[in-house]
Inverse folding.
Protein backbone atom coordinates (compact mmCIF):
# COMPACT_ATOMS: atom_id res chain seq x y z
CA UNK A 1 0.00 0.00 0.00
CA UNK A 2 1.21 3.44 -0.81
CA UNK A 3 2.31 5.39 2.20
CA UNK A 4 0.33 8.56 1.76
CA UNK A 5 2.01 10.35 4.61
CA UNK A 6 5.10 10.40 2.43
CA UNK A 7 3.54 10.47 -0.97
CA UNK A 8 1.15 13.32 -0.23
CA UNK A 9 2.92 16.08 1.67
CA UNK A 10 0.40 17.40 4.18
CA UNK A 11 -0.05 19.18 7.45
CA UNK A 12 -3.33 17.51 8.39
CA UNK A 13 -1.89 14.39 10.01
CA UNK A 14 -3.16 12.33 7.10
CA UNK A 15 -1.40 9.18 8.32
CA UNK A 16 -3.68 9.03 11.37
CA UNK A 17 -6.94 9.34 9.46
CA UNK A 18 -7.38 5.95 7.82
CA UNK A 19 -10.78 6.68 6.34
CA UNK A 20 -9.60 9.83 4.62
CA UNK A 21 -6.39 8.14 3.56
CA UNK A 22 -8.36 5.35 1.89
CA UNK A 23 -10.69 7.81 0.17
CA UNK A 24 -7.75 9.76 -1.25
CA UNK A 25 -6.01 6.51 -2.14
CA UNK A 26 -9.01 5.67 -4.24
CA UNK A 27 -9.19 9.10 -5.87
CA UNK A 28 -5.49 9.55 -6.62
CA UNK A 29 -5.23 7.13 -9.59
CA UNK A 30 -8.27 8.77 -11.18
CA UNK A 31 -6.59 12.14 -10.72
CA UNK A 32 -3.41 10.83 -12.36
CA UNK A 33 -5.42 9.46 -15.28
CA UNK A 34 -7.03 12.87 -15.65
CA UNK A 35 -3.58 14.55 -15.54
CA UNK A 36 -2.20 12.20 -18.21
CA UNK A 37 -5.25 12.82 -20.43
CA UNK A 38 -5.94 16.49 -19.79
CA UNK A 39 -2.75 17.96 -18.29
CA UNK A 40 -0.14 19.72 -20.46
CA UNK A 41 0.06 17.72 -23.66
CA UNK A 42 3.12 15.51 -24.28
CA UNK A 43 4.90 17.01 -21.27
CA UNK A 44 5.04 13.97 -19.04
CA UNK A 45 8.73 13.20 -19.51
CA UNK A 46 9.95 16.82 -19.30
CA UNK A 47 11.98 17.85 -16.28
CA UNK A 48 10.66 21.20 -15.15
CA UNK A 49 12.27 23.60 -12.68
CA UNK A 50 9.28 23.82 -10.35
CA UNK A 51 8.45 25.26 -7.00
CA UNK A 52 6.83 22.68 -4.72
CA UNK A 53 4.91 23.40 -1.54
CA UNK A 54 6.26 21.09 1.15
CA UNK A 55 5.11 22.90 4.30
CA UNK A 56 3.31 26.08 5.29
CA UNK A 57 6.37 27.58 6.98
CA UNK A 58 7.84 30.57 5.11
CA UNK A 59 10.97 28.63 4.07
CA UNK A 60 9.20 25.35 3.40
CA UNK A 61 6.55 26.03 0.87
CA UNK A 62 8.75 27.19 -1.96
CA UNK A 63 11.36 24.57 -2.78
CA UNK A 64 12.76 24.65 -6.29
CA UNK A 65 14.09 21.73 -8.28
CA UNK A 66 13.62 19.68 -11.44
CA UNK A 67 10.47 17.58 -11.39
CA UNK A 68 8.65 15.50 -13.98
CA UNK A 69 5.13 16.86 -13.66
CA UNK A 70 3.39 13.50 -13.09
CA UNK A 71 5.75 13.15 -10.10
CA UNK A 72 4.87 16.58 -8.69
CA UNK A 73 4.00 16.12 -5.01
CA UNK A 74 0.46 17.42 -4.92
CA UNK A 75 -0.05 17.98 -1.23
CA UNK A 76 -2.70 19.12 1.23
CA UNK A 77 -1.88 22.29 3.13
CA UNK A 78 -3.99 24.31 5.47
CA UNK A 79 -2.96 27.41 7.26
CA UNK A 80 -2.33 26.41 10.91
CA UNK A 81 -5.43 26.49 13.09
CA UNK A 82 -6.16 29.44 15.36
CA UNK A 83 -8.07 27.94 18.28
CA UNK A 84 -9.61 31.33 19.10
CA UNK A 85 -11.03 31.93 15.62
CA UNK A 86 -14.70 32.91 15.48
CA UNK A 87 -17.41 33.24 12.89
CA UNK A 88 -16.91 36.88 11.96
CA UNK A 89 -20.12 37.80 10.11
CA UNK A 90 -23.74 36.80 9.63
CA UNK A 91 -26.19 35.56 12.23
CA UNK A 92 -23.67 33.24 13.92
CA UNK A 93 -21.16 36.06 14.38
CA UNK A 94 -19.19 35.75 17.62
CA UNK A 95 -19.59 31.98 17.91
CA UNK A 96 -16.56 29.71 17.59
CA UNK A 97 -15.59 28.93 13.97
CA UNK A 98 -16.97 25.52 12.91
CA UNK A 99 -14.57 22.63 12.73
CA UNK A 100 -17.21 20.33 11.23
CA UNK A 101 -19.90 21.20 8.70
CA UNK A 102 -23.11 22.39 10.37
CA UNK A 103 -25.82 20.03 9.07
CA UNK A 104 -28.11 22.80 7.84
CA UNK A 105 -25.38 24.26 5.58
CA UNK A 106 -24.14 21.01 4.19
CA UNK A 107 -25.53 21.19 0.69
CA UNK A 108 -24.84 24.93 0.30
CA UNK A 109 -21.23 24.55 1.39
CA UNK A 110 -20.73 21.54 -0.82
CA UNK A 111 -22.00 23.52 -3.80
CA UNK A 112 -19.58 26.40 -3.15
CA UNK A 113 -16.63 24.02 -2.71
CA UNK A 114 -17.54 22.09 -5.85
CA UNK A 115 -17.87 25.34 -7.86
CA UNK A 116 -14.47 26.48 -6.63
CA UNK A 117 -12.91 23.06 -7.23
CA UNK A 118 -14.33 22.80 -10.74
CA UNK A 119 -12.44 25.86 -11.97
CA UNK A 120 -9.03 24.38 -11.13
CA UNK A 121 -8.89 21.37 -13.50
CA UNK A 122 -10.87 23.43 -16.03
CA UNK A 123 -8.05 25.94 -16.39
CA UNK A 124 -5.49 23.15 -16.88
CA UNK A 125 -7.69 21.71 -19.63
CA UNK A 126 -7.98 25.13 -21.27
CA UNK A 127 -4.20 25.54 -21.35
CA UNK A 128 -3.11 22.04 -22.25
CA UNK A 129 -1.84 22.74 -25.77
CA UNK A 130 -0.01 25.99 -25.10
CA UNK A 131 3.32 24.30 -24.45
CA UNK A 132 3.61 23.73 -28.19
CA UNK A 133 3.80 27.47 -28.87
CA UNK A 134 5.71 28.80 -25.84
CA UNK A 135 7.73 31.98 -26.43
CA UNK A 136 10.63 30.79 -24.22
CA UNK A 137 11.72 28.14 -21.74
CA UNK A 138 11.07 30.65 -18.95
CA UNK A 139 7.44 31.00 -20.06
CA UNK A 140 7.06 27.26 -20.57
CA UNK A 141 8.22 26.67 -17.03
CA UNK A 142 5.79 29.30 -15.74
CA UNK A 143 2.73 27.83 -17.44
CA UNK A 144 3.66 24.39 -16.08
CA UNK A 145 4.03 25.89 -12.60
CA UNK A 146 0.57 27.40 -12.91
CA UNK A 147 -0.83 24.06 -14.14
CA UNK A 148 0.58 21.92 -11.32
CA UNK A 149 -0.62 24.45 -8.76
CA UNK A 150 -4.12 24.44 -10.22
CA UNK A 151 -3.88 20.67 -9.82
CA UNK A 152 -2.95 21.21 -6.17
CA UNK A 153 -5.90 23.55 -5.72
CA UNK A 154 -8.12 20.77 -6.98
CA UNK A 155 -6.58 18.50 -4.34
CA UNK A 156 -7.34 21.18 -1.73
CA UNK A 157 -11.06 21.16 -2.56
CA UNK A 158 -11.14 17.38 -2.95
CA UNK A 159 -9.63 17.04 0.51
CA UNK A 160 -12.53 19.08 1.92
CA UNK A 161 -15.09 17.02 -0.03
CA UNK A 162 -13.61 13.72 1.14
CA UNK A 163 -12.99 14.73 4.71
CA UNK A 164 -16.26 16.54 5.47
CA UNK A 165 -18.96 15.40 3.04
CA UNK A 166 -18.94 11.60 3.15
CA UNK A 167 -20.30 9.71 0.19
CA UNK A 168 -21.72 12.84 -1.50
CA UNK A 169 -18.31 14.42 -1.28
CA UNK A 170 -16.63 11.39 -2.83
CA UNK A 171 -19.11 11.46 -5.71
CA UNK A 172 -18.52 15.15 -6.25
CA UNK A 173 -14.74 14.56 -6.24
CA UNK A 174 -15.18 12.02 -9.02
CA UNK A 175 -17.43 14.35 -10.99
CA UNK A 176 -14.70 17.03 -10.80
CA UNK A 177 -12.54 14.71 -12.90
CA UNK A 178 -15.35 13.85 -15.32
CA UNK A 179 -16.49 17.32 -16.48
CA UNK A 180 -14.46 18.83 -19.30
CA UNK A 181 -13.87 22.43 -20.28
CA UNK A 182 -15.97 23.28 -23.33
CA UNK A 183 -17.61 19.84 -23.52
CA UNK A 184 -21.09 20.02 -25.01
CA UNK A 185 -22.51 17.28 -22.76
CA UNK A 186 -20.55 17.63 -19.54
CA UNK A 187 -19.06 21.14 -19.40
CA UNK A 188 -17.35 22.91 -16.51
CA UNK A 189 -19.74 24.80 -14.20
CA UNK A 190 -18.87 28.46 -14.82
CA UNK A 191 -18.91 30.20 -18.21
CA UNK A 192 -15.32 31.51 -18.45
CA UNK A 193 -13.97 28.01 -17.84
CA UNK A 194 -15.58 26.68 -20.98
CA UNK A 195 -13.99 29.30 -23.24
CA UNK A 196 -10.90 28.28 -25.19
CA UNK A 197 -7.47 29.72 -24.29
CA UNK A 198 -6.07 29.46 -27.82
CA UNK A 199 -2.81 31.40 -27.56
CA UNK A 200 -0.36 33.03 -25.15
CA UNK A 201 -1.93 36.47 -25.25
CA UNK A 202 -5.17 34.82 -24.12
CA UNK A 203 -3.25 32.85 -21.48
CA UNK A 204 -1.59 35.93 -19.99
CA UNK A 205 -4.87 37.84 -19.98
CA UNK A 206 -6.61 34.84 -18.42
CA UNK A 207 -4.06 34.68 -15.60
CA UNK A 208 -4.30 38.44 -15.09
CA UNK A 209 -8.11 38.69 -15.16
CA UNK A 210 -9.52 35.26 -14.34
CA UNK A 211 -6.96 34.08 -11.81
CA UNK A 212 -7.67 37.36 -10.06
CA UNK A 213 -11.32 36.34 -9.76
CA UNK A 214 -9.77 33.29 -8.10
CA UNK A 215 -8.01 35.58 -5.66
CA UNK A 216 -11.14 37.54 -4.74
CA UNK A 217 -13.33 34.44 -4.44
CA UNK A 218 -10.68 32.71 -2.32
CA UNK A 219 -10.40 35.82 -0.13
CA UNK A 220 -14.18 35.73 0.41
CA UNK A 221 -14.04 31.99 1.23
CA UNK A 222 -11.00 32.53 3.47
CA UNK A 223 -13.38 34.52 5.73
CA UNK A 224 -15.70 31.51 6.05
CA UNK A 225 -16.97 30.43 9.44
CA UNK A 226 -16.24 26.86 8.29
CA UNK A 227 -12.66 26.90 9.49
CA UNK A 228 -11.16 24.12 7.31
CA UNK A 229 -12.38 25.95 4.18
CA UNK A 230 -10.97 29.25 5.44
CA UNK A 231 -7.59 27.71 6.26
CA UNK A 232 -7.40 25.86 2.93
CA UNK A 233 -8.17 29.01 0.95
CA UNK A 234 -5.64 31.09 2.90
CA UNK A 235 -2.86 28.81 1.77
CA UNK A 236 -4.14 28.64 -1.83
CA UNK A 237 -3.86 32.42 -1.99
CA UNK A 238 -0.08 32.23 -1.60
CA UNK A 239 0.10 30.26 -4.85
CA UNK A 240 -2.47 32.41 -6.67
CA UNK A 241 -0.15 35.41 -6.37
CA UNK A 242 2.37 33.82 -8.74
CA UNK A 243 -0.33 33.12 -11.33
CA UNK A 244 -1.36 36.77 -11.42
CA UNK A 245 2.32 37.76 -11.63
CA UNK A 246 2.68 35.53 -14.70
CA UNK A 247 -0.34 37.24 -16.28
CA UNK A 248 0.55 40.81 -15.46
CA UNK A 249 4.18 40.53 -16.49
CA UNK A 250 3.33 38.48 -19.57
CA UNK A 251 1.03 41.21 -20.89
CA UNK A 252 3.56 43.88 -19.83
CA UNK A 253 6.29 42.15 -21.84
CA UNK A 254 4.07 41.91 -24.93
CA UNK A 255 3.21 45.61 -24.64
CA UNK A 256 6.86 46.46 -24.03
CA UNK A 257 7.97 44.64 -27.15
CA UNK A 258 5.24 46.20 -29.31
CA UNK A 259 6.13 49.67 -28.07
CA UNK A 260 9.84 49.11 -28.75
CA UNK A 261 9.10 48.06 -32.33
CA UNK A 262 6.67 50.96 -32.87
CA UNK A 263 9.21 53.47 -31.59
CA UNK A 264 12.22 52.06 -33.40
CA UNK A 265 10.40 51.98 -36.72
CA UNK A 266 8.26 55.09 -36.12
CA UNK A 267 5.10 53.21 -37.00
CA UNK A 268 1.62 53.45 -35.63
CA UNK A 269 -0.80 51.70 -38.00
CA UNK A 270 -1.80 48.21 -36.79
CA UNK A 271 -1.02 46.74 -40.22
CA UNK A 272 2.53 48.18 -40.08
CA UNK A 273 2.95 46.92 -36.54
CA UNK A 274 1.80 43.45 -37.58
CA UNK A 275 4.20 43.49 -40.51
CA UNK A 276 6.98 43.63 -37.90
CA UNK A 277 5.71 40.43 -36.25
CA UNK A 278 4.47 41.92 -32.97
CA UNK A 279 0.96 42.32 -31.55
CA UNK A 280 -0.62 45.73 -32.24
CA UNK A 281 -2.14 47.52 -29.25
CA UNK A 282 -5.75 47.58 -30.58
CA UNK A 283 -5.65 43.77 -30.79
CA UNK A 284 -4.50 43.60 -27.17
CA UNK A 285 -7.44 45.90 -26.29
CA UNK A 286 -9.92 43.59 -28.07
CA UNK A 287 -8.56 40.53 -26.25
CA UNK A 288 -8.67 42.46 -22.98
CA UNK A 289 -12.34 43.38 -23.55
CA UNK A 290 -13.17 39.70 -23.86
CA UNK A 291 -11.30 38.44 -20.80
CA UNK A 292 -12.50 41.29 -18.61
CA UNK A 293 -16.16 40.83 -19.51
CA UNK A 294 -16.30 37.03 -19.19
CA UNK A 295 -14.48 37.32 -15.86
CA UNK A 296 -16.97 39.92 -14.57
CA UNK A 297 -19.65 37.28 -15.18
CA UNK A 298 -17.88 34.95 -12.73
CA UNK A 299 -19.10 37.06 -9.82
CA UNK A 300 -22.70 35.97 -10.48
CA UNK A 301 -25.87 38.08 -10.53
CA UNK A 302 -25.71 41.65 -9.25
CA UNK A 303 -28.61 40.89 -6.94
CA UNK A 304 -28.37 37.37 -5.57
CA UNK A 305 -30.29 35.63 -2.82
CA UNK A 306 -27.66 32.87 -2.93
CA UNK A 307 -24.96 35.40 -2.01
CA UNK A 308 -27.16 36.83 0.77
CA UNK A 309 -27.70 33.34 2.19
CA UNK A 310 -23.99 32.49 2.05
CA UNK A 311 -23.25 35.65 4.01
CA UNK A 312 -26.03 35.44 6.57
CA UNK A 313 -25.12 31.83 7.27
CA UNK A 314 -21.45 32.78 7.80
CA UNK A 315 -20.19 30.67 4.89
CA UNK A 316 -18.74 33.27 2.48
CA UNK A 317 -17.70 36.75 3.56
CA UNK A 318 -16.71 39.96 1.85
CA UNK A 319 -13.23 40.84 0.64
CA UNK A 320 -11.21 41.65 3.79
CA UNK A 321 -14.31 41.15 5.94
CA UNK A 322 -12.50 41.42 9.27
CA UNK A 323 -10.90 44.73 8.31
CA UNK A 324 -14.31 46.31 7.59
CA UNK A 325 -15.90 48.31 10.37
CA UNK A 326 -19.63 47.81 10.19
CA UNK A 327 -22.13 45.46 11.84
CA UNK A 328 -21.00 42.45 9.70
CA UNK A 329 -24.69 41.66 9.34
CA UNK A 330 -25.65 44.23 6.72
CA UNK A 331 -29.08 44.51 8.28
CA UNK A 332 -29.64 48.16 7.25
CA UNK A 333 -26.97 48.86 4.62
CA UNK A 334 -27.71 49.52 0.94
CA UNK A 335 -25.48 49.18 -2.11
CA UNK A 336 -25.80 50.60 -5.64
CA UNK A 337 -26.33 48.27 -8.59
CA UNK A 338 -26.98 49.14 -12.23
CA UNK A 339 -29.83 48.00 -14.40
CA UNK A 340 -31.10 48.74 -17.87
CA UNK A 341 -34.52 50.37 -17.90
CA UNK A 342 -36.19 51.83 -21.01
CA UNK A 343 -32.97 51.80 -22.94
CA UNK A 344 -30.94 53.54 -20.22
CA UNK A 345 -28.49 52.34 -17.60
CA UNK A 346 -29.63 53.52 -14.21
CA UNK A 347 -28.17 53.02 -10.74
CA UNK A 348 -30.44 51.98 -7.92
CA UNK A 349 -29.88 51.09 -4.30
CA UNK A 350 -30.70 47.62 -3.07
CA UNK A 351 -30.15 45.94 0.30
CA UNK A 352 -26.36 45.44 0.55
CA UNK A 353 -26.93 41.86 1.66
CA UNK A 354 -28.33 40.96 -1.74
CA UNK A 355 -25.62 42.90 -3.64
CA UNK A 356 -22.59 41.02 -2.30
CA UNK A 357 -21.64 39.63 -5.70
CA UNK A 358 -21.68 43.15 -7.12
CA UNK A 359 -19.61 44.44 -4.23
CA UNK A 360 -16.95 41.77 -4.72
CA UNK A 361 -16.97 42.54 -8.46
CA UNK A 362 -16.37 46.23 -7.63
CA UNK A 363 -13.48 45.34 -5.28
CA UNK A 364 -12.01 43.31 -8.12
CA UNK A 365 -12.45 46.12 -10.66
CA UNK A 366 -10.49 48.49 -8.43
CA UNK A 367 -7.51 46.14 -8.43
CA UNK A 368 -7.79 45.59 -12.17
CA UNK A 369 -7.67 49.35 -12.71
CA UNK A 370 -4.29 49.58 -10.97
CA UNK A 371 -2.88 46.80 -13.15
CA UNK A 372 -4.17 48.52 -16.26
CA UNK A 373 -2.50 51.79 -15.29
CA UNK A 374 0.82 49.94 -14.92
CA UNK A 375 0.43 48.66 -18.49
CA UNK A 376 -0.44 52.15 -19.69
CA UNK A 377 2.69 53.54 -18.06
CA UNK A 378 4.78 51.32 -20.37
CA UNK A 379 3.00 52.78 -23.41
CA UNK A 380 3.29 56.31 -22.04
CA UNK A 381 7.00 55.91 -21.33
CA UNK A 382 7.50 54.88 -24.95
CA UNK A 383 5.98 58.24 -25.92
CA UNK A 384 2.91 56.70 -27.56
CA UNK A 385 -0.55 58.18 -27.21
CA UNK A 386 -2.52 54.90 -27.21
CA UNK A 387 -4.11 53.91 -23.88
CA UNK A 388 -5.71 50.62 -22.87
CA UNK A 389 -9.11 51.09 -21.22
CA UNK A 390 -11.60 48.92 -19.40
CA UNK A 391 -14.89 48.59 -21.24
CA UNK A 392 -18.09 49.52 -19.41
CA UNK A 393 -19.15 46.99 -16.78
CA UNK A 394 -22.21 46.12 -18.87
CA UNK A 395 -20.27 45.35 -22.05
CA UNK A 396 -20.60 41.75 -23.36
CA UNK A 397 -22.17 40.36 -20.22
CA UNK A 398 -24.05 37.07 -20.00
CA UNK A 399 -24.86 36.99 -16.26
CA UNK A 400 -26.70 39.56 -14.13
CA UNK A 401 -28.63 42.74 -14.93
CA UNK A 402 -26.78 43.44 -18.18
CA UNK A 403 -27.36 39.97 -19.65
CA UNK A 404 -29.51 40.18 -22.78
CA UNK A 405 -28.62 43.86 -23.32
CA UNK A 406 -26.27 45.19 -25.93
CA UNK A 407 -23.93 47.66 -24.28
CA UNK A 408 -21.00 49.29 -26.07
CA UNK A 409 -17.58 49.55 -24.37
CA UNK A 410 -18.46 53.23 -23.77
CA UNK A 411 -21.67 52.23 -21.97
CA UNK A 412 -24.28 53.08 -24.61
CA UNK A 413 -27.33 50.83 -24.77
CA UNK A 414 -27.60 49.64 -28.38
CA UNK A 415 -29.86 47.44 -30.44
CA UNK A 416 -28.60 43.94 -31.20
CA UNK A 417 -28.00 44.94 -34.83
CA UNK A 418 -26.02 48.07 -33.97
CA UNK A 419 -23.90 46.12 -31.49
CA UNK A 420 -23.23 43.28 -33.94
CA UNK A 421 -22.04 45.79 -36.54
CA UNK A 422 -19.17 46.76 -34.24
CA UNK A 423 -18.54 43.39 -32.60
CA UNK A 424 -15.12 42.81 -34.14
CA UNK A 425 -13.95 46.34 -33.43
CA UNK A 426 -14.55 45.53 -29.76
CA UNK A 427 -13.77 41.84 -29.48
CA UNK A 428 -11.04 39.86 -31.18
CA UNK A 429 -12.46 38.28 -34.33
CA UNK A 430 -11.29 35.41 -36.53
CA UNK A 431 -8.71 37.61 -38.29
CA UNK A 432 -7.16 38.74 -35.00
CA UNK A 433 -7.00 35.18 -33.74
CA UNK A 434 -5.50 33.98 -36.99
CA UNK A 435 -2.83 36.70 -36.81
CA UNK A 436 -1.91 36.01 -33.17
CA UNK A 437 -1.83 32.27 -33.85
CA UNK A 438 0.41 32.86 -36.86
CA UNK A 439 2.98 34.42 -34.52
CA UNK A 440 2.82 31.39 -32.25
CA UNK A 441 3.08 28.58 -34.74
CA UNK A 442 6.10 26.98 -33.07
CA UNK A 443 7.85 27.01 -29.73
CA UNK A 444 11.03 28.79 -28.71
CA UNK A 445 13.09 26.46 -26.53
CA UNK A 446 16.69 27.57 -26.83
CA UNK A 447 17.77 28.73 -23.35
CA UNK A 448 17.79 32.53 -23.14
CA UNK A 449 15.90 33.04 -26.43
CA UNK A 450 12.51 34.77 -26.61
CA UNK A 451 9.95 34.96 -29.40
CA UNK A 452 10.00 38.21 -31.37
CA UNK A 453 6.57 39.31 -30.06
CA UNK A 454 7.49 39.40 -26.37
CA UNK A 455 10.25 41.14 -24.38
CA UNK A 456 12.35 39.07 -21.96
CA UNK A 457 11.38 39.38 -18.28
CA UNK A 458 13.47 41.62 -16.05
CA UNK A 459 14.71 38.63 -14.02
CA UNK A 460 14.57 34.84 -13.96
CA UNK A 461 12.78 32.51 -11.58
CA UNK A 462 14.36 32.01 -8.14
CA UNK A 463 17.26 34.28 -9.12
CA UNK A 464 18.30 32.01 -11.96
CA UNK A 465 19.63 33.71 -15.10
CA UNK A 466 17.36 34.16 -18.12
CA UNK A 467 19.35 31.58 -20.09
CA UNK A 468 18.82 28.95 -17.40
CA UNK A 469 17.49 25.62 -18.68
CA UNK A 470 14.07 25.94 -17.04
CA UNK A 471 12.73 22.87 -18.84
CA UNK A 472 14.74 19.83 -19.94
CA UNK A 473 13.16 17.81 -22.72
CA UNK A 474 13.77 14.09 -22.57
N1 LIG B 1 -21.35 30.97 -15.44
O1 LIG B 1 -27.20 34.02 -7.71
P1 LIG B 1 -26.29 33.74 -8.84
C1 LIG B 1 -10.66 30.48 -9.77
C2 LIG B 1 -24.99 30.38 -11.89
S1 LIG B 1 -12.00 31.47 -10.18
C3 LIG B 1 -22.28 29.99 -15.31
O2 LIG B 1 -26.16 34.69 -9.92
P2 LIG B 1 -24.30 33.09 -6.98
C4 LIG B 1 -9.68 30.20 -10.81
C5 LIG B 1 -24.87 30.06 -10.41
O3 LIG B 1 -23.95 29.00 -10.19
C6 LIG B 1 -13.02 31.50 -8.72
N2 LIG B 1 -23.20 29.96 -14.31
O4 LIG B 1 -24.85 33.42 -8.41
C7 LIG B 1 -9.32 31.13 -11.77
C8 LIG B 1 -26.29 29.73 -10.06
O5 LIG B 1 -26.57 28.39 -10.48
P3 LIG B 1 -27.41 27.40 -9.56
C9 LIG B 1 -14.00 30.37 -8.63
C10 LIG B 1 -23.15 30.97 -13.42
O6 LIG B 1 -24.62 31.69 -6.63
C11 LIG B 1 -8.43 30.83 -12.75
C12 LIG B 1 -27.10 30.65 -10.95
O7 LIG B 1 -26.21 31.06 -12.01
N3 LIG B 1 -14.63 30.36 -7.35
O8 LIG B 1 -10.55 30.05 -8.68
O9 LIG B 1 -24.65 34.19 -6.04
C13 LIG B 1 -7.83 29.58 -12.81
C14 LIG B 1 -27.60 31.89 -10.26
O10 LIG B 1 -26.62 32.29 -9.36
C15 LIG B 1 -22.20 32.01 -13.49
C16 LIG B 1 -15.91 30.67 -7.12
O11 LIG B 1 -16.66 30.97 -8.00
C17 LIG B 1 -21.28 31.98 -14.57
N4 LIG B 1 -20.33 32.93 -14.73
O12 LIG B 1 -22.75 33.30 -7.29
C18 LIG B 1 -8.19 28.64 -11.86
C19 LIG B 1 -16.36 30.62 -5.68
N5 LIG B 1 -22.43 32.86 -12.47
O13 LIG B 1 -26.53 27.16 -8.36
C20 LIG B 1 -9.08 28.94 -10.86
C21 LIG B 1 -17.53 29.74 -5.46
C22 LIG B 1 -23.47 32.37 -11.79
O14 LIG B 1 -28.66 28.13 -9.26
N6 LIG B 1 -18.71 30.14 -6.20
N7 LIG B 1 -23.90 31.24 -12.34
O15 LIG B 1 -27.54 26.17 -10.43
C23 LIG B 1 -19.60 31.06 -5.77
O16 LIG B 1 -19.42 31.67 -4.74
C24 LIG B 1 -20.84 31.29 -6.59
O17 LIG B 1 -21.22 30.07 -7.14
C25 LIG B 1 -20.69 32.32 -7.74
C26 LIG B 1 -22.08 32.63 -8.26
C27 LIG B 1 -20.00 33.58 -7.23
C28 LIG B 1 -19.90 31.75 -8.91
Amino acid sequence: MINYTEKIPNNIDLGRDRVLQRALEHWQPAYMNWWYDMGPSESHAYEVYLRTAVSVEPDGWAQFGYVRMPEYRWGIFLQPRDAQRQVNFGIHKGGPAWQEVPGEFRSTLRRVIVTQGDTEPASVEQQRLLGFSCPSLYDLRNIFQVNVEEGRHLWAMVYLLHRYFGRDGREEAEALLARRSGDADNPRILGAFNEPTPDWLAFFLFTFFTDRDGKFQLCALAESGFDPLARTCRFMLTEEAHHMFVGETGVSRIIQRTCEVMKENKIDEPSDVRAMGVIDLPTIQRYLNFHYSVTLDLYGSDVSSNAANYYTSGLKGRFEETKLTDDHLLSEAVYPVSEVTSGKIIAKEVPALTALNERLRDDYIREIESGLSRWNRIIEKAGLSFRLTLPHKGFHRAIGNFAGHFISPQGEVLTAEAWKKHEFEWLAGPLDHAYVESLMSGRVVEPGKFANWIAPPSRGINNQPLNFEYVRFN
Summary: The pocket of benzoyl coenzyme A is lined by residues 112, 115-116, 119-120, 123, 150, 190-191, 210-211, 213-214, 217, 297-301, 304, 306-307, 316, 357, 399 (CB under 6 Å). The longest strand covers residues 334-341.
